Task: inverse folding
């Protein structure tokens, strides 16, 4: 009985305080409460341990809803480029990842193999072309110098490295990919549509 009485008193007290507040103050309190109720949980990203975690990292890094405790996101980017040779969906995410993490990736050393340099340079070029920025010029030139040692174009997606698929992939490869010695089998537009879908106008502001 005493507990019920206390609840009743608390309810009346809350109503009395609400009546004492102005309409503007009540609206502000309601908005704060709604924001707290529907605010998404922060996703914490650590260094990926397997392919599934790598996919999650690439999809979520730098999106404003995830917090990274990874010490070397550039190393994860390099891993993702290599892994994307067996995962076209992961490859589709790479320009978005590069754009979201551009502040870090532009300052990093990209000490990679010549074949990885071809792919990484291609994805850098796409990301900054789609983002209408020339800030990656020095990084792209560095990667192009490393990639220039590749004399024969190679099929990026290993699944397509078969005679009847390779020919079709060559036909579908864009001039941008060809310039990086890649046989990709996908037009640049397929990457651009995903890029535009994932990033809003504010995210596409030039550096």
Result:
């Amino acid at each position: 009985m005493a507990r019920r009485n206390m609840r009743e008193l608390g309810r009346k007290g809350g109503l009395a305080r609400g009546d004492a507040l102005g309409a503007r103050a009540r609206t502000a309190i309601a908005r704060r409460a709604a924001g707290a109720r529907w605010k998404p949980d922060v996703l914490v990203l650590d260094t990926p341990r397997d392919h599934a975690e790598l996919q999650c990292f690439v999809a979520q890094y730098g999106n404003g809803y995830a917090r990274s405790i990874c010490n070397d996101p550039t190393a994860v980017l390099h891993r993702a480029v290599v892994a994307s040779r067996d995962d076209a969906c992961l490859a589709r995410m790479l320009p978005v990842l590069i754009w979201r993490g551009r502040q870090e990736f532009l300052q990093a050393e990209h000490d990679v193999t010549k074949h990885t340099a071809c792919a990484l340079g291609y994805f850098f070029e796409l990301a900054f072309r789609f983002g209408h920025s020339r800030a990656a010029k020095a990084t792209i030139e560095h990667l192009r110098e490393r990639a220039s040692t590749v004399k024969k174009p190679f099929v990026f997606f290993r699944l397509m490295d078969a005679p009847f698929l390779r020919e079709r992939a060559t036909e579908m490869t864009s001039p941008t990919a060809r310039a990086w010695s890649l046989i990709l089998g996908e037009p640049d537009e397929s990457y651009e549509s995903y890029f535009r879908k994932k990033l809003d106008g504010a995210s596409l502001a030039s550096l």
Remarks:
- The mean pLDDT is 86.
